[in-house]
Design brief:
216 residues, alpha/beta, two-stranded antiparallel ribbon, 6 helices, globular
Length: 216
């Protein structure tokens, strides 16, 4: 079985193809209300440096891709979902977006200065995370940086019929410590570890975790 036909990738693609337009409308300006999110993205951009070559992997409708570009990075986006990419290209015509899997990136070794996985590792099974982080490391130049954001917790959250669409997908929640250990095993040094506590005003029932790691 190739990665392109792995059940979890197919389920993820079908889910986001179904909800792309509604998702883009719902979360269009969400990071504006989250100063910690903006601070983490700004810290990452400054760490990578102006003009740094960055890939936003699992970019969805491209809002984080566009924000990274506004911070001076040379950024492109990648996503499994053709419908999400259609939104991203429509709303960000000056940026490059491609379809593909984070587990099999069409990039040469050491091609990038930075990788962003903004809540996009949450659909990858735990046992495949070493493969994912290994692929991130492969495409990063020595000294390049990874920004990883995810929900903190021990149990997944199942989303059923979002926006009324007949699709279901589990969103995995993971603790920062074990994720940092996996990154270390893949050849990264975690340089920043941040946890933002739950925020009822933002409808976030669990903490949000952010890791910035350097490719050794």
């Amino acid at each position: 079985m190739t990665d392109d036909t792995a059940p979890f990738l197919t389920a993820t693609r079908v889910f986001y193809d179904a909800i792309a337009e509604d998702y883009a409308d719902r979360f269009r300006d969400v990071h504006v209300a989250q100063p910690v999110d903006r601070a983490m993205l700004a810290a990452f951009a400054e760490t990578v440096g102006p003009g740094g070559r960055v890939a936003d992997l699992g970019c969805g409708p491209g809002r984080i891709t566009a924000h990274l570009a506004s911070l001076g990075l040379s950024v492109s986006g990648l996503d499994l979902s053709a419908a999400m990419l259609a939104v991203a290209r429509r709303e960000n015509p000056g940026l490059r977006f491609e379809q593909g899997s984070m587990l099999e990136l069409d990039l040469p070794d050491a091609a990038l200065d930075g990788v962003v996985s903004w809540y996009s590792s949450i659909h990858t099974p735990w046992e495949r995370l070493p493969d994912l982080f290994g692929e991130f490391r492969r495409v990063l130049a020595p000294g390049g940086h990874l920004l990883l954001a995810f929900q903190s917790g021990d149990e997944p959250r199942r989303h059923e019929r979002p926006f009324g669409h007949p699709v279901t997908l589990d969103f995995e929640r993971r603790r920062p410590g074990p994720m940092a250990d996996l990154l270390a095993g893949a050849g990264f040094s975690v340089r920043v570890r941040t946890l933002r506590e739950p925020d009822e005003a933002l409808a976030e029932p669990v903490a949000q975790a952010y890791l910035i790691a350097r490719r050794d």
